[in-house]
Structure formats: C-alpha cells, structure tokens
Amino acid sequence: MPTSAASPSLGRVLLTGAAGGLGRQLRTRLRGRTTLLRVSDVVAMDPAQEGEEVVQCALEDRAAVLKLLEGMATVVHLGGISTEQPFDDIVQANIIGVYNVYEAARKHGVRRIVFASSNHVTGYYRQDEVIDPTMPVRPDGHYGISKAFGENLSRFYFDRYGIETVCVRIGSSFPEPKDRRMLATWLSFDDLERLVVASLTAPIVGHTIAYGMSDNTTTWWDNTPARHLGYRPQDSSEPFRAAREAAQPVVDVTDPAAIYQAGGFVRMGPFE
Questions:
Q1: SS3 readout for 147-176
Q2: Which domain holds residue 194?
Q3: Considering the entire predicted model, what is its pTM?
Q4: What's the CA gap between 99 and 43, in Å, rounded?
Q5: CA 154 to CA 144: how far, in whole Å?
Q6: CATH number, domain at 201?
Q7: According to the model, what pLDDT value does residue 270 have?
Q8: What is d(CA 9, CA 170) in angstroms, rounded to the nearest whole number?
Q9: Active-site positions?
Q10: Cis-peptide into 270, omega within 30 deg
C-alpha cells in the first residue's frame, strides 16, 4: 500500500459510496491523509473511527445531500449504482444524485470533486482500438449513459462555476484480474489510491478525464491527456496473464463481449 506519511494532508474530504467495495478500500486508505474524513452511503456503514464522521444519506434526497457537503473542501464521489440496471433505478442515484452533489458543492464552495465515472462511458469502442479521453463517448448501457451525464454535468459546473473535477473512468478494480478482458482494464487497489490522491493534490486539474487503470501491458486506453495529474501506476496485470489465459484459452471472436471494450455489459438488458 502507498504510504500515507509521504502525502500532504488532504484536508476535509467527503467520501460517498463508502459502503461499496471501492469505498471501503478508499475509506481505510484516505483516513490517515485527511484532517476529517466524512463517509456516506445509503446503507449502514461501520462506526466512525478517529478522524471520521459517518452519515447515512440517499443521494436523491437533495436536502440531505446539501447538509452532507457542508464544511467539506473536496469530495470523492463514488456513490450510486455501479452495475447495469433498469433506467428507473439508475436515474435516482446516478443522475438526480450527481446533480444534487454538484449543486450542494456550488452552494458550499467545494473546490474540487473526484467523480467515479466508468470505462462503460466508452464501452462500444472495439477491443482492437486504443482510445483517449478526448474521443466521443460511446456508452454501452444505462449505467454508462448515467456516467456520461455525470461527466457532462461536471464539465458544466467547471465552466460555469469553476468547480474542478477529475472524472476517473474506472476500469476493473479488484484484488486481481478475473478474466482475460481484465488484463487490459485492471486497476489495483494501490493504483486506485494513487490516482485518487493525485487527483486531489495536483495543483490545477480544471476538468480532466482519466482512465483508471494500472500499468498493464495490454491496454485500450491512452491517458496522455491526463498526465498533468501526476498519476503514475506502479502495478500491472502481467503477473496474472498466464493463469487468466489458461482459464480462458479460446476466445470467440464473434462474441460481442469479446469485440467491444464493454465486455459482458453489451449482453445486459433490455429489462422488460
């Protein structure tokens, strides 16, 4: 794990989605770097540790979100639905919820947000393409559409109100890659921490989009437009390659999940 002692204090930080898989990782890793870490989720969380506040909050509750951001300097916004679901479910937390976060940030003078976007914003690019954050979005479902909305909303709040945002298009963040696709998309937990801390501490970020990936040998994403963040991944999926390829020795090149960067998300839905 990257050492917290070498990092400057991050000040007063709100972490939403703190009960989720990545939220739990970042809660532990950010705690020692902040003067106050306020954590929130729609579900119950572990009790507050020293230097923490715990607030249960639904993102679609505008008044609750306004209170949630009071006194915060920055926000790491992981909250919301993180899988493909019917649109009526997605819209509450991922569209109304992200609007509520940015409106509360504007009213409270929050200076910077790290927004957990997703590689599914560009899921309909092919796996034989290398793309960068400046290219047009091609979302692969309701979830990807909601994250594209969040990226556009954050761009508006930077242009109109000066709230800086780093949109992190998270790849596949697990202890290790689960399949061959993740050899390209894997983001280690340590590199996730490095990317979030870089996004919070870079002197100027403006409105930046960065892909959340480790230093993988195989990759579909070029992060050159985000190098000003100072994020330098130190892990790689390569040590897992032999096992993942042995488990999946044959790839059906006619399968949409093998054609498009979205993987299995292109098979999900319709839901009615």
A1: HHHHHHHHHHHHHHHCCEEEEEEECECCCC
A2: 12-267
A3: 0.95
A4: 20
A5: 15
A6: 3.40.50.720
A7: 87
A8: 24
A9: 143
A10: yes
